[in-house]
Amino acid sequence: MTKNPAFWLRCESKDFERRAALTPSTAKNLIDLGFDIFVERDEQRIFKDSEYEACGCILVPHGSWASAPLSIPIIGLKDLPVSSEPLQHTHIYFGHCYKNQTGWDSLLRRFYSGGGTLYDLEFLEDAQTRRRVAAFGFHAGFAGAAIGALAYASQQKDEVLGKLKPYDNEGEMIDAVKSALLGGNGQSMKVLVIGALGRCGSGAISLFKKIGVDEANIIEWDMAETAKGGPFQEILDVDIFVNCIYLREKIPPFLTKSFIETAGEGRRLKVVVDVSCDTTNPFNPLPIYSVNTTFTKPTAPVDISSALSPLHVVSIDHTPSFLPREASEQFSQSLLPALKQFSERGYVNTWVEAERLFKEKVVKALAIS
User: Fold this and answer.
1) DSSP states along 302-340
2) Is-contact 56 28, C-beta < 8 A?
């Protein structure tokens, strides 16, 4: 199909996932360098098919990546459609299979059976800084905090937050959140963000400032503050708690159901936003819920005594889709330098280390099958 370096942008199968790993602007940048960019038609994606076509992309049928030439890497964001079919292609996406998440070994065995390779976006790291080359962290925290504020606003009215609709831009979202809150802003709120020094935490803090939460009422915690080990009374003493940590190992829980119930009506906490969303991770520091929430049903009640005031959890695992265009542009621009080097992946450290990790995890998966 092509002798030029190429990428195949697949459509996303997850409901309400409107983001894209390649945007028209980053696709145009690659095309100008001699790449061929194939884009699956997709009505759900925030960017129109015509935007890609206008910059020189080759449009292909929706969901057709399985029939793409094996020489063309498939790039996306979220999970592949559920299947047991072997995976023959090279895939670049968030696999969510390196930290013992549910189904991790089955997915890696599919790659092994088909001879394919996974370059997991979560583990593409800069060789010098060891930081991820691209992440949705800031927008995950920003949008997650916005959803948390909307859930809190619904509780102020003795309601439960209903179906969410993504916003076209940040200003529109900020205005909507402020107007939903009593008083037209977040001035009366008190919030706590754990993981405040990271990209995700900084996004949450930025949102709270923009909706009018007093800076004195934005409590910022990171590893130094959590070192003493939870559960933490300080979480119960705020209106909204946002968890933005990057979980690497088992740690004491931040909250437990028994800790919440023991506090009784002395609890101020109304909404927990788990942006980290380690729902199926055995080390999840928030063992107060067990399901991911969705854009259709954005909150889930914590199962505590009915005599207590309600506590809701937001655990949407793709919160940046609340601001899909801006989040996609930021992420794709950050990823672009690594994509430009993909043809030299055999000796570019970012790609070499990602492939090494993939092979290491495959061995682990095969050992337990």
Assistant:
1) ----TTSPP-EEE--TTGGGGSHHHHHHHHHHHHHHHHH
2) yes
Answer whether residue 323 shows pLDDT above 70.
yes
Query: Are 221 and 249 spatial neighbours (Cβ–Cβ below 8 Å)?
Result: no
Q: What is the pLDDT of residues 132-165, one digit of tens each?
A: 999 999 999 999 999 999 999 999 999 999 999 9
Beta-strand pair 6-9/74-75: parallel
* DSSP type of residue 197: T
What is the number of other CB atoms lying within 10 angstroms of the CB of residue 63?
14
Of 14, 28, 89, 96, the catalytic one is 96
For residues 155 and 149, what is the distance between their CA atoms, to the nearest angstrom? 10
CA separation for the pair 90, 8 (Å, rounded): 10
The mean predicted confidence, pLDDT, of the chain is 95
Q: How does residue 127 score in pLDDT terms, banded at 50, 70 and 90?
A: confident
* Residue 96 annotated as catalytic: yes
Give the integer Cα–Cα distance in Å for 174 and 151. 14
| Residues 92 and 28: beta-carbon distance below 8 Å | no
Catalytic residue (choose from 78, 178, 340, 359): 78
**Mutual orientation of helices 137-156 and 199-210 as an angle, nearest 10°?**
40
Q: Which of 307, 46, 322 is nearest to 161 (CA)?
A: 322
Q: Please tell me what DSSP assigns to residue 36.
A: E
How far apart (Å, rounded) are the C-alpha atoms in residues 286 and 176? 29
| Planar angle of CA 272, 82, 284, nearest 5 degrees | 30
CA distance 204 to 143: 7
Q: Whole-angstrom Cα distance, residue 350 to residue 366? A: 25
- Whether the per-residue pLDDT at 369 is higher than 90: the answer is no
Q: Are strands 6-9 and 36-40 parallel, antiparallel or unpaired?
A: parallel
pTM for the model stands at: 0.87
Place of tokens 């991770």: 281
Q: Is residue 309 within 8 Å of residue 270, measured between CB atoms?
A: yes
